[in-house]
Amino acid sequence: MQKLLVTRNAEMMKRLHSYLQRRGIPVTVSEHGNQLELWLTQSSYSALAKDLINEFKADPDAAEAELESTPAATQPAKVTASMTQQLLQQAGLVTIVFAALVSLIFALLNTQLATTVFDSLRISDTFTDLPWSQPWRFLTPVLLHFSLLHFLFNVFWWWYLGGRFERFYGSTYLLIALVFCGVFSNVMQFMVSGPYFGGLSGVVYGLFGLAVVVSWQRPRHPLFLPMGLIAFMLVWLLLGYTDLLWVSVANTAHSAGLIAGLVLGVALRYIEYFRKKKQIS
What number is the average pLDDT over the span 221-240? Predict the structure, then answer.
C-alpha cells in the first residue's frame, strides 16, 4: 500500500478516484478524521499513478474528457482483464496461498486419502485432550471442508474479506487474524462438540467482525460493509442455532470467531489511533 494523496475535498477525491480506476490504476480511498487518503494497492503502478494524478490536478475536466474520447481498445489492460486477473488483484499473497491450500485439502478429502488427511488435521485424537504436543492442530481444522457448498462459501468469503484486509493492512496482520481467530474458534468448538468438525467459517466470521469494527462510521474505508451484508452474515449466524438449515453447522466456531474478530478490530483501531496521535505530535 502506498499513500498517493491527502485532501479534504470530497468531490475532487471522488472524481480522481473514478478517473484512476477507469485508467486501470488499483486505488482505494480511506477516511481519517476530516481527511481523505488515496492509496495505491499495487506498487508497480506507482510511477503511472503519479503521472496521472499530476495530469488530473492540472486540468480535471480535460483529463476526464480525454479519457472519454479514448477508444476502449487503447485503455490499460485492467479494463479488459480476465476474471482471474481481477480476482488476483483483489487479494494478497497470504490470501492466495491459503485459499490454494484449502482447495488442495478439499480435493484430497474427496479421494481415498480422506481418512488419513482428516486424522492428520483434526484438532485432537480424543474428546478431551488438547493437542499440546502437536500445536499445529490448534489451527489445521480450518483447512477441512466436507461439502462443495461449505468449501465454496468459505473460500469466497475468505477471498472477499481476507483479500481486502491484506491489501490494506498487510500480510502480517492477516496472518495474525487467521491464527488468532482460527485457534480460538477451533478450541471453543472442540470444548463443545469434540474433534469431529472443520471449516474456515470461524476465521471468516472473525474477519467479518474485524471489518465491522475497523470501518464503523467510516464509509470510505476499504473494509466498509453495507448494512445488508452485515444483516445477512448475522442472520446466517443465528440460523445455525435453529433446525432450519439443511447442513450441520459449527455454531460455536462461528460465534467464537466473531468474538475474536471483534477483539482484534478494537485492538487495530487503538493501534491506528495511537499511530495517528504519534504522527501529529
Answer: 88
